[in-house]
């Protein structure tokens, strides 16, 4: 709950900007804007879709481009899959719908902390820290859309990149990740300006880690080198039942 306080603030700020944008740029009705936040529930993709709608792009193209924009969620869900093993199909489907950058970061950190799947560790960040604040703020932004025409005038358009940068910091364990983050950001921004946001996000996400891997292992100065148990533990992978030491009790856990 404490970890999620900052996410609540960013979700409300980001949702408010979305509501403003949907009303003033996309000319969405309040019902349409709210329906998109409940049904799509994909912040960056929603912003992109509004821009595409405003430019008159055909719906099939909008669907394809927003799909590519949110392709990173395939990696998020793959990382969460080991923790959700054995859960019902309905629960996993609902979890997939509510999966966001923020809920992933909070949930994976919590699972790693307790060493197992914990229901509140996913549903609390997914619902309380993101879904509810996002939709309340969306409603407020839609209602105030006619009064605040340009979000950038107040500086609130910086909320989304600031939130993403904050989530990234917790994943940095050595020079490889730092290089990957800097390269990914530079490539992503450059490609977005030159081609478009969907291509920029994909290019930065794929090429950034590739650049990071060019750093020699001897100079990586990693706390958790890639491919080691320490790396699996850092990125939230649950322990497997086989292997030496895997049945040993964790700190604070009874044998």
Give an account of the 3D structure:
- The chain is mainly α.
- It has a domain at 5-162.
- 64% of the residues lie in helices and 0% in strands.
- It is built from 12 helices and no strands.
- It has helices spanning 5-24, 30-39, 43-54, 59-69, 72-80, 89-97, 101-114, 119-143, 159-169, 175-194, 197-213, 229-234.
Structure keywords:
single chain; 255 residues; mainly alpha; 12 helices; 64% helix
As a percent range, the share of strand residues is under 5%
Mean pLDDT: 80
Uncertain ranges: 241-255
Q: Give the helix tally.
A: 12
Shape: globular
Q: What letter string, H or E per element, gives the SSE order?
A: HHHHHHHHHHHH
Note the gap between the termini. 28 Å
What's the helical proportion of residues?
55-70%
Global Rg: 20 Å
Q: Give the biggest sheet.
A: none
Helix/strand-derived category reads: mainly alpha
Total beta-strand segments: 0
Oligomer: single chain
């Amino acid at each position: 709950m404490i970890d999620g306080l900052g996410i609540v603030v960013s979700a409300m700020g980001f949702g408010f900007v979305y509501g403003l944008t949907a009303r003033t740029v996309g000319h969405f009705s309040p019902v349409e804007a709210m329906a998109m936040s409940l049904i799509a529930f994909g912040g960056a993709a929603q912003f992109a879709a509004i821009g595409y709608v405003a430019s008159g792009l055909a719906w099939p193209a909008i669907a394809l481009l927003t799909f590519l924009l949110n392709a990173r969620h395939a990696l998020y869900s793959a990382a969460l899959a080991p923790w959700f093993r054995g859960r019902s199909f309905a629960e996993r489907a609902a979890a997939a719908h509510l999966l966001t950058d923020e809920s992933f970061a909070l949930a994976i950190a919590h699972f790693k902390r307790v060493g197992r799947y914990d229901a509140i560790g996913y549903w609390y960040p997914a619902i309380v820290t993101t879904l509810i604040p996002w939709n309340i703020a969306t409603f407020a932004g839609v209602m105030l859309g006619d009064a605040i025409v340009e979000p950038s005038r107040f500086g609130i358009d910086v909320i989304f990149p600031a939130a993403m940068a904050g989530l990234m910091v917790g994943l940095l364990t050595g020079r490889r990740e730092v290089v990957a983050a800097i390269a990914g950001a530079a490539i992503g921004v450059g490609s977005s300006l030159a081609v478009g946001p969907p291509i920029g996000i994909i290019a930065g996400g794929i090429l950034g880690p590739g650049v990071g891997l060019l750093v020699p292992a001897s100079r990586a100065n990693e706390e958790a080198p890639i491919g080691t148990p320490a790396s699996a533990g850092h990125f939230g992978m649950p322990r497997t039942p086989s292997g030496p030491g895997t049945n040993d009790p964790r700190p604070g856990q009874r044998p």
